[in-house]
Every structure is written in C-alpha cells, then in structure tokens.
Amino acid sequence: MVKINHNSAMGMFVAILVYVHIICVAVSGRVHPYLSGVEKPISNIFDTSKYGIYQLGNGLGGTPQMGWNSWNFFACDINEKVIKETADALISTGLAKLGYNYVNIDDCWSELQRDSKGQLVADSKAFPSGIKSLADYVHSKGLKLGIYSDAGAFTCQVRPGSIFHESDDAKLFASWGVDYLKYDNCFNLGIEPEKRYPPMRDALNATGRTIFYSLCEWGVHDPALWAGKVGNSWRTTDDINDSWASMTTIADLNDKWAAYAGPGGWNDPDMLEVGNGGMTYEEYRAHFSIWALMKAPLLIGCDVRNMTAETFEIISNEEVIAVNQDSLGVQGRKVYAYGPDNCYQVWAGPLSGQRLAVVIWNRSSKTSTITAKWATLGLESSTKVSIRDLWKHEYVSENKVASFGARVKGHSCEMYIFSPSTVTRSVS
C-alpha cells in the first residue's frame, strides 16, 4: 500500500480572463498530485479540493474502468461459452481497442456451497473448465478477467460470500489470474461496510497480484466519504434498471459526490444499460454522455455479441470516450438547471488542455432550445470559444461569446467540447 498524504490542502481558484491559476497551499510543501503543472481546470466552479486525498494508490484506476459486465443482460444465465464469446466480440467489434478491456463475471458463477476445504468452486455445469482456464482464454485476447463476490455471508443470489474468508478467497482469485473484483453488499450480517470492505482490500494487496477493487455498497453509508482509501471505485447508488426514470435518478444521486472522485478512485453510478431495450436511442445517448462526463466506469451491460448498429454507434463514440478517459480526471457535474421542473440542464466538467466538456440535457419530453451561459460554466462573458459537437463530430461554432444555445429533442442531450480561442486545437 502507498502511504496517503493527508496533509495536502488545496487553495482557492482565481479566475483571470480565460485561465485560472490554482494556488496550492500544501502544508507538506507538495502541490496537489493531480492538478500540478500545466494541466489545471479552466474554470473556478469545479471543486477539486477532495481529489487525491484518499486514493488507494495500487496503481490502478488512473482513469475510470472500461469493459463489460454480465449482470444487466444475462443475470444468472451465464456460462463460460458466453464469457468467451463476449471476449471474442469485444475484439472483433473493435471495442477492446477503444478501451473496453475488462470482461467481468457477475453473480452466479460459483457452486452453492464451498468445498470440503472451505474454498469457493466454480459452478461445474456453467464453468466446467474452471475460472483459471477462462482467465487464460481472456488474457490470450489481451483482455482482463473480472469476478464477483460479496462482503457478506452470501452473494445476492445466495452463493457463498467472502466475509471472514477474505484471505483464502483473495489468494484463490489471484491464483486464477483474476484482474478485477466486484464486491457486493448482500447478507452483510448487520456489520457496517466501513468494517467489512477493508479486509478484502488488505487480502488482495497481500496476494502480490494487482487487482482492481470495485466496491458495490450501493451508497448506503456514503462511500465517497471513506471508500477512496479502500477501493478503486465505489457504488454511490442502488442498482440501475433499464429505464429513463432509473437512469436520471441515479445520475442526480451520483452528481452529489463529484468532489470526491479522481484518478485512482471513482464514483460508480452502476453499469451501462445501453442496448438492453428499455430506453430509446436518444435516452441511451444521453445515458452514455452523462456517464462519460461524470467519469463513471463505462461497463457495457448489453449482449455485445448481438448489438444493433445504434447501440454500437453510442458505445463506440471515441470522442465521448475520450472525455471519460481524460487525464485531468475531474468529474463533470450539473452546473445549471431551469425551466419546468428544472428539466433544462447544463452539465459540465474541465478537461486537460484548458478545455471544457459540456452536456446540454433536455429532461422534458418536448424538443426545446436550451442555453448554456458562460457564467454558469465559470467563463468570462467575453471569452471566445470554439465548440465541437461530439455526436456530429464537427465544429459547430467558432469564436462564440457569452452563451451557446442548442435545440435538443425530448429526453436527449447534445455534448460538446468548448475550447477558448487561445487554446490550440487540431481540426479534423
């Protein structure tokens, strides 16, 4: 484990024309670990004072994790054939090259009971070759294998949990070549998560294998306040379902914790539902855009072996993915809302290179024009900005000042990168 320096403190942001100079008051004499040097947010409105304070420091999670998880589409109907074919599909579709490199098996992979030695055992019917063999196959494709367990007596589907078995289970996962652990919260015996989750962190670290640690505590005890020193990501919400109501509610809940995420540890509003059929194309595009802006994990939850062209178009948008994977690592957030029930919304977040990612989101059911004013983005009104549309893949405005409006369909969004005119950009 890397020792965490709790003595660093961030100073205040001062806006001077376009650029904002960050005054770092570091008691220990060190500047902020993620906002030092030339890469500093352009705006003074994005609180980053909590970033980097608690990060686990195991070398993983420099950007939000990307990959695929079995649960949202398959639930318990999983087997090694599905996992292998999914790995193959990530390669053949080109999704792996875009960063989707974790192939994560969720609940129901194990037998209903441990063996006579107290060890977890893969379901003999669904995974007859064993998890080690499956990991070898996934690794042969240049991908990584994730697995699931629970910080309780049983998993949510009543398979054996890992509480009080952390050391043995971590050793077993490492011996199989597992690269990622999703750790759930069912049957938790009434023990506080702050006590149940650290033992698995310590057990994983003790194996000597670098394993991404994803806490799935559902936001019950506000994990953003403590989980950064325990895992690489932490669920801030209950489970998502494939509906507009669920997705929008979860986005709002996750937004509350924006100041506590950053490189090494991310807020997790649950997996993507894009492609599972419960929302429209426009709603899924908004889902993907907001998750990318929020620096949420991008874990595909559909059957990538049988995607529609529209689903692939959404999850393969390289410009939107680049926002999620931006090296600055600052979570975008809701900066302004107005109109009926505050359904006309502007979400934004700083990017490297003194740029801003901006999502104009129409949460109403009718097409409307929504305006983002420079003041809501932390920009001086005289700042000239070039604007690139990340879904049209083109520049839609040059030297724009004061505000920018867009006509947005109901339950849809538009996503942009704002670059001040003094920032060099390449035209594609």
UniProtKB/TrEMBL annotation:
<keyword id="KW-0378">Hydrolase</keyword>
<protein>
    <recommendedName>
        <fullName>Alpha-galactosidase</fullName>
        <ecNumber>3.2.1.22</ecNumber>
    </recommendedName>
</protein>
<dbReference type="Pfam" id="PF17801">
    <property type="entry name" value="Melibiase_C"/>
</dbReference>
<dbReference type="InterPro" id="IPR000111">
    <property type="entry name" value="Glyco_hydro_27/36_CS"/>
</dbReference>
<keyword id="KW-0812">Transmembrane</keyword>
<keyword id="KW-0732">Signal</keyword>
<dbReference type="GO" id="GO:0005975">
    <property type="term" value="P:carbohydrate metabolic process"/>
</dbReference>
<dbReference type="Pfam" id="PF16499">
    <property type="entry name" value="Melibiase_2"/>
</dbReference>
<comment type="similarity">
    <text>Belongs to the glycosyl hydrolase 27 family.</text>
</comment>
<dbReference type="InterPro" id="IPR041233">
    <property type="entry name" value="Melibiase_C"/>
</dbReference>
<dbReference type="InterPro" id="IPR013785">
    <property type="entry name" value="Aldolase_TIM"/>
</dbReference>
<feature type="domain" description="Alpha galactosidase C-terminal">
    <location>
        <begin position="342"/>
        <end position="417"/>
    </location>
</feature>
<keyword id="KW-1133">Transmembrane helix</keyword>
<dbReference type="InterPro" id="IPR002241">
    <property type="entry name" value="Glyco_hydro_27"/>
</dbReference>
<keyword id="KW-0472">Membrane</keyword>
<dbReference type="InterPro" id="IPR013780">
    <property type="entry name" value="Glyco_hydro_b"/>
</dbReference>
<keyword id="KW-1015">Disulfide bond</keyword>
<feature type="transmembrane region" description="Helical">
    <location>
        <begin position="12"/>
        <end position="31"/>
    </location>
</feature>
<dbReference type="GO" id="GO:0004557">
    <property type="term" value="F:alpha-galactosidase activity"/>
</dbReference>
<dbReference type="InterPro" id="IPR017853">
    <property type="entry name" value="GH"/>
</dbReference>
<keyword id="KW-0326">Glycosidase</keyword>
